[in-house]
Write a structure and sequence with these properties.
The complex is a heterodimer of chains A (about 375) and B (about 775).
Chain A lengths: L2 E4 L7 E6 L7 E9 L4 E9 L3 E7 L6 E9 L4 E9 L2 H4 L14 E2 L1 E6 L7 E6 L7 E6 L2 E8 L4 E9 L8 E6 L7 E6 L2 E6 L4 E6 L7 E6 L6 E6 L4 E5 L8 E3 L6 E6 L6 E6 L4 E5 L14 H10 L12 E6 L6 E6 L6 E6 L4 E5 L2 H8 L1
Parallel strand pairs in A: 4-8
Antiparallel strand pairs in A: 1-2, 2-3, 3-4, 5-6, 6-7, 7-9, 10-11, 11-12, 12-13, 14-15, 15-16, 16-17, 18-19, 19-20, 20-21, 22-23, 23-24, 24-25, 26-27, 27-28
Chain B lengths: L1 H25 L7 H8 L3 H6 L14 H11 L2 H111 L1 H17 L4 H27 L4 H13 L4 H26 L19 H27 L6 H22 L6 H21 L1 H42 L11 H24 L12 H33 L11 H29 L12 H37 L13 H20 L10 H15 L13 H14 L13 H21 L5 H18 L6 H17 L9 H10 L1
Helix pairs in contact in B: 1-5, 5-6, 5-7, 6-7, 7-8, 8-9, 8-10, 9-10, 9-11, 10-11, 10-12, 11-13, 12-13, 13-14, 13-15, 14-16, 15-16, 15-17, 16-17, 17-18, 17-21, 18-21, 18-22, 19-23, 21-23, 22-23, 22-24
Classes of the chains: A mainly beta (about 375), B mainly alpha (about 775).
Family (chain B): Belongs to the VPS51 family.
Subunit structure (chain B): Component of the Golgi-associated retrograde protein (GARP) complex. Component of the endosome-associated retrograde protein (EARP) complex.
Keywords (chain B): Endosome, Golgi apparatus, Lipid transport, Protein transport, Transport
Chain lengths: ~375, ~775
């Protein structure tokens, strides 16, 4: 299984959606609820019969709306399509059914609309407008960026604009992220070794990081608090942090993994916490204080510092944290293809490996208090 | 009268000698002529008592005729008695005649002596009268002399008075002439004028109450003032050489000009002169170019030794001279001289430093050393007078030396880069088929040897700075700090560090962004070089350095060899890791492209191993050869290949999509997952991009791991048809056949290939594996 997403619109319960990949069985979307107080995991299963799920994302506005990219296999061809779905009402808010009868109780997703990609090729991923009302999505199909408007309560998807990447070489997009900054007008995409930024209004390229990684770029993420900061990871085992205003050199590079890094995620509220998942079966939680938005050492300007002093007089006494790896999680036995922070609890994250194991972990308590206090 | 007495004495003496002669001619019993006489006149009792009382000795004093007679009679035969009697008779006669002769002679002498005495009596009486006469005459003479002198005394006094007056007059004359002379000499020979004035001054001062003298004094004063004025003007406006200057000031001092003012004048004059010399020196330097825009300053007109020579002979010499005369003139109070000299010396140093800065090239170090040496020696004279300058001068020399060492470091670095460039070229040069280019070991040996040789040469050059015959080598700086800080740390250690850094740079640096990446062979070469440094070269270099530049015990802390070794090892490790990554990435890229671009669903039944797999095996074999040239074989997991091969085939047939298909039927996918999970529980976690060891097997294992893991991940991203799966099976088997021997642990290869097969099966729509025998057949054919 490769597809994992937090339920973005849900802010109370810790809930993740996992899409399965199986060629020979009906695929499913598992809704994983984690009860933090009782330390109990609940699972609900939704059938997703159209094919194996390669990518999944949830609407930021409507808890019940999910978009997936799935493989449609015929005898001689594999086509990756994308669709928007609605979950059954009772699962939307995570009704706590007993886990043992989940298999008998499987329900089916209600199809809202297809994102018609016959003209554009395989869908690599679907992104929702991060702060929006769940009406705009962007999908990446081969070398095209497609911006869709969902109308009639998501029942109809209208292609509002699109652009294609042209040129030589490997042009298929592998991944993309929608920036939460600049009024949600920017996205970043990765193809081959290049990271590109796009303006969604004009659908023009605004920046391009050539050779961002030595090999294929696997994933991107925007810093939720610093609008120009971007993290990327790739097949050269590195995680790089970029300032999109100056794309010649990375701001910082991490080399902790021993194989391809498939996923990188900023924590939604504490952007010094970086989560990476790699096919060396490890999940690494890093603390990148030096490039986070939190005050760090002497990098803070004087007036800012005085501001900070008013708020956190104890800040001065504390030793500034150094950039470091906080923890390496080795629970997985196979390649980890997805890591995500919970949308509800900023100290909780899930990781998913090829063999279908989902692991939920917490940020170490000591560090949590260190950051909070 | 005196002659008479003398003649008498001589007569007495003459009387003695014939006697002796006659005694001798008498012979026989008279052994000594005076003996019997002495005995006769002064009977020495002592002698008598002492002599043995031998009554029979006829000549002895105790002769007893009776005893003699009896003795002779009783002892001698008759003939002898007769002979004896005759002999005695003869002797007696002879003695008698002797007595008579003596008697005659002495009688005559007595007579003449008596006559002489009588004559003397008469003469003395006459002499007395004459003496009286003489006394009377002398008295008369003295009286008349007294009279004469009394008469002359008055005249004498007057004469003396006149002489005095004359001397006085002469002096006065001289005094009167003083102004004239002064005037005459003031123009031409001021020194003489000064001497003259100095002589006259005391007198004039003493008699200044006399109006005439005062006039003279005033006049001479005026002249001298005039002279002083002229000297001053001269002092001020003329360019004097130091000697003239000194003279001038000396004269002014004698003129009792205020020394304060004079010293100031002196210094300003000297300053002007020294300034001029400095300016002359400066003129030799090319224009300072503060903006630094000039591409290359024109080469200096003269070499550094020349410059220093001129500088020291002109400037330092003059400064010394002036300082010496200042001391002589104004005493030991150097309160003003010191800052003056210090300021000038500082400027001189600055100039010299600028000149030294021009010595950009490596030029001739011995020349520089000699120049600095000369500078230092010449300055020593100055330094006695200006202790503060010593530090500055030493610092200057030290800086120059340091600068030179730095330059050597840079040259070494350039040299090393050049060598690297050569190596690169050699590696990149297209090799004509059939003709092997220089092998990697040769290149490595050449590189290492030339770098080491260059380092040694540089050390030899630098050693000139501490040579025994160089004066400044004995400075404590050159003894201690220079050896340790500059040479050992600044040159040798810095070079080794830089080498490691540069090597590392090939691994860390721009390899992936922009700049062309270093060829893998170069990485390998550098890794080996760093390793060699770690193993032996660093300790050798450090020992060599410590020998040539013995460190002081109390010197600053030095970088220990092990730290450098660790650094070199780190660099070697990094390079080798990078090599593995680069090569692995190349192979992986090939595999990834081949997997990604193929249509795995619609592929036909495999007939062959795919070409890309053959290519992979070829590449890895080539890498094996390349690494084998430089690194040792390394240790394989102690396990005979036979047994592991068998283990593999059993294992693979039991769980891989082999002949025993039942376990792979779609009905039991969870089983395979379970199996794979259980297998993973027991196998070690494989770190794909992990550090490798310094041997061939480890390096190749690393590369193979990277390649196979890539294959695994790529296969997982695809959806395969039945024949796609079979193709993967064939490819996997082919790789297994050819790659196991490169890896240190076949199980790694096996495990990864098993996982590839499992993933392929999992990703397959219609997992019908191929017959194992067919797979083997195809592989063997391929």
């Amino acid at each position: 299984a490769r597809a994992l997403t937090p339920q973005t619109a849900e802010t109370d319960a810790i809930r993740f959606l996992v899409g399965t990949q199986s060629l020979r069985y009906d695929n499913q979307i598992h809704i994983i609820d984690f009860d933090d107080e009782n330390n109990i995991i609940n699972k609900n299963v939704l059938l997703h019969q159209v094919g194996e799920i390669w990518h999944i994302s949830t609407s930021p506005a409507d808890k019940g709306v999910v978009a997936t990219c799935y493989n449609k296999t015929s005898d001689t061809k594999v086509m990756t399509c994308a669709a928007v779905w609605r979950m059954p009402k009772e699962l939307e808010s995570g009704s706590h059914e007993s886990p043992d009868d989940s298999s008998s109780n499987t329900q089916t997703l209600e199809l809202l609309c297809h994102l018609d990609n016959t003209a554009h090729g395989n869908m690599a991923c679907v992104m929702w407008e991060p702060m929006g009302d769940g009406k705009k999505i962007i999908s990446l199909a081969d070398n095209n960026i497609l911006l869709w408007d969902l109308q009639e309560s998501s029942a109809k998807a209208v292609l509002s604009s699109s652009t294609a990447l042209e040129g030589k070489g490997q042009l298929k997009f592998t991944s993309g992220r929608w920036s939460p900054h600049h009024n949600c007008t920017q996205i970043a995409t990765a193809n081959d070794t290049t990271v590109r930024g796009w303006d969604t209004r004009s659908m023009r390229q605004i920046y391009c990081i050539e050779n961002a990684h030595g090999q294929l770029v696997r994933d991107l993420d925007f810093n939720p608090n610093k609008q120009y900061y971007l993290a990327s990871c790739g097949d050269d085992c590195k995680v790089k942090f970029w300032d999109t205003r100056n794309v010649t050199e990375p701001v910082k590079t991490l080399e902790e993994h021993s194989h391809w890094v498939w996923n990188v995620r900023y924590n939604h509220s504490h952007d010094q916490l970086i989560l990476t998942g790699s096919s060396d079966s490890r999940v690494i939680l890093s603390n990148m204080v030096s490039i986070s938005s939190e005050p760090f050492g002497h990098m803070v300007d004087d007036d800012e510092l005085s501001d900070q002093e008013d708020q956190h007089p104890e800040e001065k006494i504390k030793e500034p944290l150094q950039d470091s790896v906080i923890a390496t999680y080795e629970e997985h036995e196979d390649s980890v293809y997805a890591v995500e922070w919970s949308s509800a609890d900023p100290w909780l994250f899930a990781s998913l490996s090829y063999d279908g194991r989902l692991v939920i972990n917490r940020v170490p308590r000591a560090l949590k208090y260190h950051i909070l206090l | 009268m005196a002659a008479v007495t003398a003649g008498n004495g001589a007569g007495t003496g003459g009387g003695g000698s014939p006697e002796a002669a006659s005694g001798g001619s008498g012979g026989g019993g008279w052994r000594r002529p005076h003996g019997p006489l002495q005995r006769y006149y002064g009977p020495s009792t002592a002698e008598a008592a002492e002599a043995a009382p031998d009554p029979t000795d006829i000549n002895g004093p105790h002769f007893d005729p009776e005893v003699f007679m009896t003795k002779v009679r009783s002892e001698c035969p008759l003939g002898q008695l007769l002979a004896r009697e005759a002999a005695l008779g003869r002797e007696i006669r002879a003695l008698d005649s002797d007595m008579q002769t003596l008697l005659y002679e002495n009688y005559n002498k007595f007579i003449s002596a008596t006559d002489t005495i009588r004559k003397m009596k008469v003469d003395f009486r006459h002499m007395e009268a004459e003496m009286d006469d003489l006394a009377a005459n002398m008295a008369a003479i003295s009286a008349s002399s007294a009279r004469v002198s009394a008469a002359l005394q008055d005249r004498h006094r007057r004469g003396a008075q006149l002489a005095g007056v004359q001397a006085l007059l002469r002096k006065l004359q001289a005094l009167v002439e003083v102004p004239g002379r002064l005037r005459r000499w003031a123009g031409t020979e001021p020194a003489r004028a000064l001497r003259c004035h100095a002589r006259a001054r005391a007198v004039l001062r003493h008699y200044r109450h006399l109006p005439s003298f005062r006039a003279i004094e005033d006049e001479s004063h005026a002249i001298m003032a005039d002279l002083a004025q002229r000297l001053r003007t001269r002092l001020r406006c003329e360019t004097l050489d130091p000697k003239e200057l000194t003279e001038c000031v000396e004269m002014l001092l004698q003129l009792e000009e205020p020394p304060e003012e004079l010293s100031e004048e002196f210094l300003s004059q000297a300053g002007a002169r020294l300034e001029a010399e400095l300016a002359a020196l400066e003129a030799e330097l090319p224009e300072a170019d503060p903006s630094g825009t000039a591409a290359t300053p024109p080469p200096p007109a003269s070499d550094i030794l020349d410059f220093v020579d001129r500088g020291s002979s002109a400037f330092v010499g003059t400064l010394c001279q002036l300082a010496g005369s200042y001391r002589a003139l104004f005493g030991e109070d150097t309160g003003r001289l010191e800052p003056f000299a210090a300021a000038l010396a500082t400027r001189y140093f600055a100039l010299l430093e600028r000149r030294l800065a021009l010595e950009r090239g490596l030029g001739d170090t011995s020349l520089l050393v000699r120049a600095l040496d000369r500078f230092h020696r010449r300055l020593r004279a100055l330094l006695e007078l200006l202790p503060a300058g010593a530090d500055a001068a030493a610092a200057l020399v030290a800086r120059a030396a340091r600068e030179r060492v730095d330059r050597y470091l840079r040259a070494l670095q350039t040299f090393f880069l050049g060598c690297l460039g050569d190596v690169r070229q050699a590696l990149a040069a297209p090799r004509p088929p059939g003709k092997e280019g220089p092998g990697l070991p040769d290149l490595l040996a050449t590189l290492a040897a030339s770098v080491l040789g260059q380092l040694k040469a540089v050390l030899a050059y630098v050693q000139l700075f501490t040579a025994r015959d160089v004066a400044f080598a004995s400075l404590p700086y050159f003894k201690g700090e220079f050896c340790v800080t500059a040479v050992r740390e600044g040159l040798v250690v810095a070079f080794v560090r830089w080498l490691c850094r540069t090597a590392r740079g090939f691994a860390d640096g721009p390899a992936e962004r922009g700049a062309p990446a270093a060829p893998p062979a170069l990485l390998l070469l550098l890794a080996r070089l760093c390793l060699d440094y770690e193993n032996s070269t660093i300790s050798y270099i450090l020992t060599l350095t410590d020998e040539q530049f013995p460190p002081q015990d109390s010197g600053p802390a030095v970088t220990p060899g092990p730290a450098l070794c660790a650094e070199a090892r780190g660099a070697a490790q990094r390079l080798l890791d990078h090599y593995v990554q680069v090569q692995g990435a190349a192979v992986a890229q090939m595999l990834r492209k081949s997997v990604e671009t193929r249509d795995w669903l619609g592929t036909v039944e495999p007939r062959n191993v795919r070409a890309v797999m053959k290519r992979v095996v070829e590449d890895i074999t080539a890498i094996d050869v390349q690494v084998g040239q430089l690194f040792e074989e390394g240790v394989r997991r102690a396990q005979s290949s036979d047994s592991s091969r068998r283990a593999f085939s059993v294992y693979s047939s039991s769980r891989a999509p082999g002949r025993y298909a039942p376990s792979y039927t779609p009905s039991a996918p969870m089983d395979t997952h379970l199996l794979s999970n259980i297998q993973k529980l027991f196998s070690e976690r494989i770190d794909i991009f992990s550090p490798v060891e310094f041997n061939k097997v480890s390096v190749l294992t690393g590369i193979i791991k990277i390649s196979l893991k890539t294959l695994l991940e790529c296969v997982r991203l695809r959806t395969l048809g039945r024949f796609g799966l079979q193709q993967v099976q064939v490819d996997g088997h082919y790789l297994q056949l050819y790659l196991w021997r490169f890896a240190s642990d076949e199980r790694v290869v096996q495990g990864l290939l098993d996982e590839v097969a499992a993933s392929a099966a999992h990703r397959c729509l219609d997992p019908v594996p191929m017959e194992h025998s067919v797979v083997e057949l195809i592989c063997e054919r391929g």
